[in-house]
Amino acid sequence: MLIRDKDLLSLRMVATDGSEHAVADVLVRQDGLRLAYVVADIGAWLADRLVRVGIERFDPPNVPASEWRAAIGEHELEEKPVVQDAPGAKRALPLALFSRSTSGEETDLRDDEGALRSVTAITQGVRVDAEDGRAGTLMGLIFETDDWTARHIVVETGGDGAPEHQRVVPVELLGPIDWPGGTIRLDATRAQVRESPDLHEIDGIEGKWYNKVLAYYGLQS
Fold it and tell me: The whole model's pTM is what?
């Protein structure tokens, strides 16, 4: 099943004891754009307390019910280190999140497999460049729930008097990603991106539409 990052952020994480928590963010591996962690807000009202939970603990998301069940209990959640506990953290996560240890020392958010990136952050201004100039801004990722790897990026195009659209580009066309500089390069032209399938053409992401995107870029086998 294909699902947008924004749809994941609309779900409630349901723990094994029935407690529910808002999904504040999801974290992807810097190399490969594979979803690795869900950031859950377990804080009280007006006091965000964000913790990360491994994606392997989650069942497939139940979008109609707005639920995302996880094999973790409230006690284990409370014992997890805080990702960021400042008020309003959900609305202002930086490009590189910080994990606070018990000693108070801050380190770049990563795990044993490498660096992680906040999807909420990278979809708020990362520039997307085509072969012949700026194509737009990164607006979202579309994941395959079988392995939680990003299959497409969503690019907001427009500018120069042109109306804005949310165009979909397969990850096969991604070139080098300059994380410090906040820039993604595509192996495609600006015209290709601006004429690619629009995300708003459909009510839901499904196989027929997915194949249409691949066919447009000549990637369908």
Answer: 0.83
